[in-house]
Design a protein that fits this description.
Blueprint (H helix, E strand, L loop, with lengths): L1 H17 L18 H13 L6 E8 L13 E8 L4 E8 L10 E9 L19 H10 L1 H9 L5 E6 L8 E6 L8 E6 L5 E5 L1
Antiparallel strand pairs: 1-2, 1-5, 2-3, 3-4, 5-6, 6-7, 7-8
Length: 204
């Protein structure tokens, strides 16, 4: 009987020692992927506010990369240029989903300041609150246009990029959905109001 009493505690201790709590599984890191224009903008905006509190966006631009392809309404890298009236300067910030080069890093990075003399007919600062339509929605709207469908049939596989800005041409900032690698090389583009999400102009 005495031996049994000694054996039982030893057995219990052995079982306790072997039954360790299971280790939590490590979350797998999601692979990098392209993002919409507003997703990139709101990653950049708080960093840009550290440069100057009175910043207003001047231009949002999608960047084509060889290392990662665009998706519908999304790009792997973006440039956003802000103007600061108090400083009389403008500054561009980049966001990239991946590390690309010495000048385009993963994440948000500022570039150098430039002089800014104020609004022009081709580049006017606009309110952040005016950005109510994202690039995926702008793309969907532009692609439904019959002219867009006709152009795509005649020019299959064209890359599509996106730019946003405010000019004297339109009353609100607009997303320009561009079929081609740049504005200068594009044969067709659609202007979508960034506030209302409606098409305001098509251009060949």
């Amino acid at each position: 009987m005495f031996r049994l009493k000694l054996f039982v505690p030893a057995l219990v201790l052995g079982l306790v020692g072997c039954s360790e709590a299971p280790q939590p599984k490590k979350k797998e890191k999601k692979p990098p992927e392209p993002v919409t224009g507003l997703s990139a903008f709101y990653k950049i905006f708080p960093v840009a506010k550290q440069w100057s509190v009175d910043i207003q966006p001047l231009r949002i631009e999608c960047m084509l990369l060889e290392e990662m392809k665009n998706q519908v309404g999304k790009c792997p890298a973006w440039r956003v240029t802000f103007a600061s009236q108090s400083k009389g300067k403008k500054r561009t910030f980049t966001y990239s989903a991946i590390e690309v080069s010495a000048t385009l890093h993963e994440g948000v990075f500022p570039q150098g300041e430039e002089g800014w003399s104020g609004p022009t007919a081709q580049a006017k600062p606009f309110l952040v609150a005016a950005l109510r339509t994202d690039t995926d929605a702008a793309h969907e709207t532009a692609a439904k246009e019959k002219k867009s469908q006709d152009y795509e049939k005649k020019n299959p596989g064209k890359p599509i990029i996106y730019e946003c800005g405010l000019t004297d041409r339109h009353s609100d900032p607009v997303w320009r959905v561009i079929w081609g690698e740049s504005v200068s090389s594009s044969g067709y583009s659609v202007f979508v109001d960034a506030s209302t999400g409606k098409i305001v102009e098509t251009m060949r």
